[in-house]
Structure formats: structure tokens, C-alpha cells
Amino acid sequence: MRFLFDRGLLILTVAAAAFGCQVYDETLVDAGIDGGPGSDAGPCNSRTPPPRPTEADMPGGDEILFGLRAVELEQEDGDAWREIGLDLDGLCTEAPDFASPCRPPRRARPPADGNDGIDNVFGGELFPLVDLAVGGLQPLARQAQEEGRMPVVRIRGWNGTDNDSRIDITVTNAIYVVPEVDGMPHPHTVENFIPVNEGMPVPFPTWDGTDYGFFRDETFLGGNPDQPLLRDDNAYVADRMVVAQLPERFEILFPAEDVGVLVRLTNATATGRISDDGMTLENTVVSGRWSIIDLLSTAENVGICRDSDSYDILLGQLDTVADVRSRAGSGGVDAVCDAISVGVRFTGTRLQWGGLTPGPPVTNACIEADGGTMSLDGGVPMDGG
User: Fold this and answer.
1) Which end of the chain is less congested by CB atoms within 10 angstroms, N or C?
2) What tens digit of pLDDT does each residue of 270-293 get?
3) What's the CA dihedral at 255, 256, 259, 264 to 10 degrees?
4) Which residues have a Cβ under 8 Å from the Cβ of 332 and sit 6 or more positions away?
5) In the chain, what are the domain boundaries?
């Protein structure tokens, strides 16, 4: 789920300066379904996950893991954003009435939805502003994933059929991934969170399903692989489509080279189709609501500090594109949109479980730490045994 653009928020402040803000017009907004009295437009052909199968749960097989690669941040070409995400508010926000669950803080009308009511302001309006100022953020993110730093989905309890009424989903982060050697992880030690062998970097993953991932131990309680913190133990598979609900506002870490970013989504859903051969998680989409407050908190991780001009510019731009409420069902005539809708797509590739390992710490770039910043041990031996 690396839909964060490392230092992209800093770039956003530059792009935002070129865009003005409009005044809200009450006549253009309907109270909507998401907590309001209803919309004259009614619900559209809503893009939602398939329903849970009705068959009784069957015993599952071995766990499988997918590393999420080929992230799609650039969604403007061909209006790709219109097909990435879900209908979060049950409304078609489009001409002529632009039905909405809330009123935009600083805009004449809410941003239009994608196809079938898809809510994805991130792909349609926010990321294009970032890429306008500095291109190449998507290739950088994809390069990190190819090297083995990425979100990971672990599936337990799947019965191996097209339909399973209950499975157990964990989301974590791969700190690094190493290729297989003789059925084991490539021998290595870890220096500054990078796997090395005799002082040389270990070869990059082959992405043929045999690679071993080593995952951030802080995403498991006490470093216990059987106690994941980011989990849906009541997920399901419908026509080979995995559907999982993510915990509200749980922190998902996306490390970069010298900074880390925390993403907190509400009303978040992850979906993806298990390929017929079981080796790929196709069309993996993460959708949800990212509150302006949480997004501004993330900004401090990359050096956009409160009481600065850049922070004020960023706040103004977020107020311009906000299109949903952070809490589903809290909309209404006088409710102000306080979040942006998010839809990001990946392709998942099979991994093997290698183990847990410390990851780079997340620091607040706006706070000077006494005695230096916290660091974690980067020399943990990983010999594959």
C-alpha cells in the first residue's frame, strides 16, 4: 500500500501555491446518503465489494503471502483514477446536482466521482498536483518495491476454493526481501536495514514466488508473528476476490530512505483477486478516507511544520479537495468535508515467510530530539537457518 509519495507532501506545497480556492455554494450540494436526509439523485450503480459467500466456512490450508508491487500513483492519464477505488458514500457526485455527504470547506462544489460512484480524490486531484511540481515519484516508489520494500498481505485459513466465507488477513511491511538459495533465504546479515553478505548487498528478489520477506516486527504485538496488529480475522473470498476491512485509524508505516510516513485510513477496504494459479494477487485496491488532521500530522514527518507558510498552503489545498467525512455516516446538510477519498492499486506477488526484523524509525522532522534521533539495531544476523 505504498500510496505515499515519500517526500511528496513537501512538493505539494509548491504546487498548491499555483491554485486558488473557491467559495462554497450551498445550492450545489445535496445532503446525501452518508448521514444526511437523502439525495434526490439516489444511490448510483455503486462500486462495492462482492458480498460474503453464504457457504459454511471450510478448513483452510497453508498461509500465503503477497508483496504489493507496481503501485499506481499516477492515475490521471486516461482518467485511470475513475476505475480505482470504491463508492465510499453511496452517492453519485456528478452533474447536475453533485450530490455529496458534506459541504467542501473551500470549493464551489465537491469533486466529481469516478465510474459507479467511485470516490478517489487522491488519484483524481491530489497526486496530479504533486506530480505537476516534481515528476518521477511513481517510478521511485516502484523501484523501492522491486528492491523489496513494500506492503505485504498475509492470508491464513483460505480453503483454496473460489469462495471462502471466512479467512484471516494480516497487513505488514517488508523491510527487505532476499532471493532463495537451496530452499532457504539467501545467507545475510543486516546493516542499516539492508541485507548484506560478506560486505556486499544481497541480490535483489527474483519475484518468481520463491523470495523470502523479512517484515517489520513492530507490526506484531511483542514481535509475535501470531499476534498481528493490523488484521481482519473475518475477511472472506468471493469468486476468488479477497475482501478485508482494515481497523479504523490504525497506523500503517511507509518507510523511505531518510523519512517515514504514517498513514491512518478510516472506512478502509482492501480487495484483490487471487489468480487461478495462486501466484498473484491481481487488481489489488486499497480504498478509504484519509482525514485532513491525520494527513497534516504526516506532514511533520517530512518537515512541513506547523506555524509555517508551507503548512498553511498545504492546509488550504487540502481544504480545496476534501470530498468526504472521515467517519462514515456522519454527513449532513451542515457537515463539513474533513477528509479526502483514496483509491490506490497494486499487483501482489507471492513471497515466502522469512521472519521479523526491526525497521527504520519514524521521526518528526519538526522536533529536535535531545541527544540525537532514536535508532534501531541494524545488525541483526539473518543466516537463513
Assistant:
1) C
2) 999 999 999 999 999 999 999 998
3) -40
4) 31, 35, 36, 37, 101, 102
5) 8-46+64-360
Measured between alpha carbons, how far is residue 8 from residues 204, 233, 267, 368 in Å? 26, 33, 24, 22
Find, among 78, 121, 59, 63, the residue nearest to 324 by Cα.
Answer: 121
Spatial contact of 93 and 85, defined as CB atoms under 8 Å apart: no
Residue 253's DSSP bridge partners are 262
How many C-alpha atoms does 343 have within 13 Å on its Cβ side?
A: 28
**Cα distance between residue 385 and residue 355, in whole Å:** 11
Q: Is the pTM of this model over 0.85?
A: no
Widest Cα–Cα separation across the chain: 68
CA separation for the pair 211, 271 (Å, rounded): 23
Q: For 169-216, what is each residue's pLDDT tens digit?
A: 999 999 999 999 999 999 999 999 999 999 999 999 999 999 999 999
Asked whether the predicted pLDDT for residue 382 surpasses 70, the reply is no
Choose among 201, 175, 197: nearest CA to 187: 197
Angle at 14 between CA 10 and CA 16, to 5 degrees: 105
What 3-state DSSP class applies to 123? helix
